[in-house]
Amino acid sequence: MPLFVLGQMLYANGQVTNEPPEGFVEKRATQPATLTLDQAVAVKVQNNQRLTKNLKSLIWDDALAANAQQWANYLASINNLMHSTSDQRPNQGENLAYSYNSNGVTYPLTQGAQGWVAEVSNYHNEIIPQGNFASYGHYTQVMWSSTNRIGMANATAANGGVYIVARYSPPGNYVGYRPY
């Protein structure tokens, strides 16, 4: 039975109605109500950039966020910014950032997201090359058309530096392809 939502009205079986059919359960791609302000704004920053290319919004994923938190904790413990291996994050893309301010970092996830989408100025619709594409690789992961879920986390090192990790699924940045 085809069912379409038209504003507040439903279209089912060739008729417009205000009542859903019996047994209908509405499923929407929505953000959980439990996101912090920093998480919500960081996702919005990336989704706003995705909208510029008519890409679907990323949806928060708690499992990806938990994976990101584990890696952020590790990075903070060794005080070193490095990507995890693909074995450590199966079927997940990854963006990393580091932030330090002597007064503390208030919204680290948002700062990371803003930096990643700012790489748009370095990307000129080229295919992902074999080798170094660091000047725009964070942006292309954010914009990868098949990526639909995100989880982010941060951890603070002993020196006050903040490690920011985003995990994406499915991953992007496949060599020989464009993000959109």
TrEMBL record:
Organism in which the protein naturally occurs: Truncatella angustata
Protein name: CAP domain-containing protein
GO CC term, one of those recorded: extracellular region
Source taxonomy: Eukaryota, Fungi, Dikarya, Ascomycota, Pezizomycotina
Domain SCP: 37-176
InterPro entries: Allrgn_V5/Tpx1_CS, CAP_dom, CAP_sf, CRISP-related, V5_allergen-like
SMART domains named among the record's database cross-references: SCP (SM00198)
